[in-house]
Amino acid sequence: MKQLLRSLALLVFVVLLMACGGTAAPAAVPTAPADTAAPVATDAPAATTSSTGAAVDKTKLSAELHVYNWTDYIDPALLTAFEKEYGVKVIVDNYDQNEDMIAKVRAGGSGYDIVVPSDYAVDIMWRAGLLQELDKSLLPNIVHNEPTLLNKYFDEGNKYSVPYMYGITGIAYNKKTFPTAPDSWSTLFDLANAEKYKGQFSMLDDEREVPGAALRYLGFSLNETDPAAMKKAQELLIAQKPFLAAYNSSDVNRKLSSGEYVMAQAWSGQAMQARNGLGDSFAGNPDIGFVMPKEGGMIWMDNMTILKDSPNAYTAHVFMNYMMRPEVAAQNTSYIGYLPPNKDAIPLMDQKVRDLYAEGFAPDAEVMKRLEWAVRNEKTKIFSDVWTAVKGQ
Fold this sequence. Notes:
The chain has 2 domains: about 20-165 and about 300-350, D-Maltodextrin-Binding Protein, domain 2 (3-Layer(aba) Sandwich); about 165-300 and about 370-390, Periplasmic binding protein-like II (D-Maltodextrin-Binding Protein, domain 2). It has 15 helices and 12 strands. The protein has helices at about 1-15, 75-85, 100-105, 120-125, 185-190, 190-195, 210-215, 225-240, 250-260, 270-275, 315-325, 325-335, 350-360, 365-370, 380-390; strands at about 45-50, 55, 65-70, 90-95, 115, 160-175, 200-205, 245, 265, 290, 295-305, 370-375. The two termini are about 35 Å apart. The model is unreliable at about 1-10, about 10-35 and about 40-45 (pLDDT under 50).
């Protein structure tokens, strides 16, 4: 773990300071079975070569690709560019919790090809037989990813997933309300403070994030499963709940930007979006800041995967490889504001985003020491029980 944290801290350092960089040249993509869905009609050459040298047989592409992704988690312009290049229309639906996504696809026949589960959720899904093994020969751009973000505990060897984005969970706040940056989860959990800002702040709608933050505030690991500790976290959350505007994972970025929320538990990218805006969707607010509380918090990574019952696996591989092109990853990361696992995208990113990373929207070496990955095992089922009890109040 210490080596992992040092490696991740080095990656963030590179994000902040690297001024130039190169990309490795991947091998050509060999032939693969065509998708079962109707292929796209095109007058373009049957086989084309992308800017990264990966050959794509357009006769094997489907007309559409269906992606199930987190809200505000991809630059729409990239979908248009992909369609222009390959003739495939990408249709994106959104979810706000891993558990909701898993429940929807578990029964089969969801119609989705690609889903983007978080770390522990990848582990759940491949063990449940929901994901298909990836054909690495169709994913040469995986070489652009930071090596320390590959081969993680939830998918050793990256048999089922490739990194999409990673981030941290902390407190987003309005500097006009808090001229001095808050430095503790007590900003959200202290009942006197909660009453002062009643209806003006939110917690994520997430059964691992919210109890995890409460546990860190109480001095425990966010993976603590001792019943006594979990009872304390549950009691704290129930006491806090009447003062919340909502449990919100979907549009907390917009509500922070508009001033409706003065603070919120938020993913780092949501805070970045609240600060910068999100394309034509909404304007940013220069008064939004982001901090990791002194008690520490969560680091996580979301990953692209292909569902076992996807009829468009070839097209899904082509799309995933496209998203790992350094120039594409740089554009996507600059737009959504999370942290890129793609090391070769870093020097291509907008300087404004890299400057905000340095301001605190990305972890430095000191912050990295206070971060934990969420784990999932038989004992962590207690998080679902606690969350049910809190949401039921």
